[in-house]
Amino acid sequence: MPNSLSASEAGVPPAAAREPILSVRHLSKSYRSGAKVLDDINLSIEPGEIFALLGPNGAGKTTLISIICGIVNPGEGEVRVGGHDIVRDYRRTRSLIGLVPQELTTDAFETVWATVSFSRGLFGLAPDPAHIEKVLRQLSLWDKRDAKIMTLSGGMKRRVLIAKALSHEPRVLFLDEPTAGVDVRLRQDMWQVVRGLRDGGVTVILTTHYIEEAEEMADRIGVIRGGRIVLVEEKTALMRKLGRKEMVLTLQAPLDAVPPALAAYDLSLSGEGTELTYVYDSQSERPGISRLLEDLSAAGVRLRDVTTRQSTLEDIFVSLVEARP
């Protein structure tokens, strides 16, 4: 699928927008072998948004997040968080960021209260029981504050990781596969938690393999492939620009083949000859549909039912990932 957006400009908000909380400019990273894992990444994240970064395994998502969070040294380019350079102002930028890793790494024998409070101390902040209580209540962990981590369910442990990441009051929260291994009900609960964090003023950046998660939660979507950002777009605009619509025509009587008079519409025949599918651009105003229905009638094709289907974010993601560079 063609991409009408410039990779170098796609992630840059309009000039009238607020100063981005996160700005990545011309970031590249190569291994010692010479293999390039990130190639000229440009990305701006606005304050108070939920941004979903999608990409196949090996696309560079983890490396990008690790550089921003100060875990991996950057190569070429610049990264700024809250207006501060991540290299020159390392301590300041790291204090602005919370990171929730995919792995459930917690202190099994510590209590929830102790491990979250300790995480705050790691950033050199004075104890603040009121803030810790607020975080635990926000994440529905208050009743578990004296429980040892080892006694918690997987979903609760993941909430503890989020609590630890929020203990030092960051402005940006990275969630790496936040609902991996979590059942559907708990996943929906986590979505509510993330929305609550955003409503509380935290900018949330998540990576996920669950396309429906990005479709449900994100304000904007970014797609990374082969170390390059291939698209950044507001979610609904992305669906409108790159989506397709399909009209499925259920026939009263089966056809052996598409009538020659209908060849111009590039219809596909399925359902043992009982369904015709017409694909059209969702940006167009139902192009050719009235004429198609007239030509179907003229060709003697009688309809039993007509349904339409809008392409999903998963359809768009797959087409972008599989497209040639």
How does this structure look, described?
- Residues 22-251 form the ABC transporter domain.
- Belongs to the ABC transporter superfamily.
- Keywords: ATP-binding, Nucleotide-binding, Transport.
- One of its GO terms (molecular function) is ATP hydrolysis activity.
- It contains ten helices and 14 strands.
- The chain has 325 residues and is of the alpha/beta class.
- The chain folds into two domains: 22-240, Rossmann fold; 243-311, Alpha-Beta Plaits, CATH 3.30.70.
- It has a six-stranded mixed beta sheet with strand order 6-7-8-3-9-10, sandwiched between helices. Strands 2-1-4-5 form a four-stranded antiparallel beta sheet.
- α3 (112-121) packs parallel to α5 (154-166).
- It is elongated and about 80 Å long.
Defining traits:
single chain, 325 residues, alpha/beta, Rossmann fold, Alpha-Beta Plaits, 2 domains, 4-stranded antiparallel sheet, 26% strand, elongated, disordered N terminus, transport, ATP hydrolysis activity
Describe the secondary-structure layout.
Elements: E1 22-30, E2 36-45, E3 50-54, H1 61-68, E4 76-81, E5 84-85, H2 90-95, E6 97-100, H3 112-121, H4 129-138, H5 154-166, E7 172-176, H6 184-199, E8 203-207, H7 211-217, E9 220-225, E10 228-234, H8 235-242, E11 244-251, E12 268-270, E13 275-281, H9 289-298, E14 303-310, H10 313-322
Parallel strand pairs: 3-8, 3-9, 6-7, 7-8
Antiparallel strand pairs: 1-2, 1-4, 4-5, 9-10, 11-13, 11-14, 12-13
GO molecular function, one term: ATP binding
Protein name: ABC-2 type transport system ATP-binding protein
Keywords: ATP-binding, Nucleotide-binding, Transport
